[in-house]
Amino acid sequence: MKTATFFIRTIIGLLLISMSIAYFFNLMPELESTENFKAFHVGLISSVYLMPLIKTIVLLCGVSYLFGQYVVLTNIVILPVSTNILFIDFFLNPNGLPLAIFIFLGNLFLIYAHWKSYKSLFTRKSVMHFD
């Protein structure tokens, strides 16, 4: 299990870092896509702050995965991003779907691998009363 966790964490970390660097340095060509995806992409770019914010979070999470630091926190931070990547690719850009599925399932696997750290989030505790 430790070997699989290390392997998945490292591969996802490298993918996230490479996607972020490619965005910040304009290293990737424009994607061929449908009209709906183009409209969605233009909306993201038009917001000015959203794509740089997302790519910065993705870069920080990739570095965290690569170095194995704060992985438990990183799993939770990157989950909404990987979920959105999966849905965007499923509904608007099927060309990126295999990579999106790998990142999403890898994220779920890493959450499963660190489940002991998340268990307390799902247990019912008595409400604290402050008198």
Automatic annotation (TrEMBL):
Keyword Membrane part of the UniProt annotation: yes
Record's protein name: DoxX family protein
Keywords, alphabetical: Membrane, Transmembrane, Transmembrane helix
TM stretches of this protein: 7-27, 39-63, 70-91, 97-115
Originating species: Flavobacterium gilvum
